[in-house]
Design goal:
Layout: E1 3-7, E2 10-13, E3 18-25, E4 31-39, E5 46-51, E6 57-59, E7 67-72, E8 77-82, E9 91-99, E10 103-106, E11 110-115
Parallel strand pairs: 2-11
Antiparallel strand pairs: 1-3, 3-8, 4-5, 4-9, 5-6, 7-8, 9-10, 9-11
Length: 116
């Protein structure tokens, strides 16, 4: 019943910006962290950014200083503001919600393509 819907992906030139959104709906209890992952063709899914329920943030070294994760708890929504985009950022971006003790939910993914 829990659903995560991502939006905001698209095609952008190197140096440009995009903001991804992920809205959660359904019966959700005790939301912990909300995260962003990405997966490029032929590569494993990697962690991009973490936002905990207490407001702490963690970033992968590859995006630190360029990406910002934020959340609106009232709307159960997490955002990823991406700036100074590079072709290496091209990937499908996924959001993840961790709730309760062992519940883990994933969005369907949104494509981000950065041209050189």
């Amino acid at each position: 019943q829990v659903q995560l819907v991502e939006s905001g992906g698209g095609l952008v030139q190197a140096g440009g910006s995009l903001r991804l959104s992920c809205a959660a709906s359904g019966s959700i209890f005790s939301i912990n962290d909300m995260d962003w992952y990405r997966q490029a063709p032929g590569k494993q899914r990697e962690l991009v950014a973490v936002s905990t329920s207490g407001g702490k943030t963690v970033y992968a070294d590859s995006v630190k200083g360029r990406f910002t994760i934020s959340r609106d708890n009232a709307k159960n929504t997490v955002y990823l503001q991406m700036s100074s985009l590079k072709p290496e950022d091209t990937a499908v971006y996924y959001c993840r919600l961790v709730a309760g003790i062992s519940h883990d939910y994933w969005g369907q993914g949104t494509q981000v393509t950065v041209s050189s």
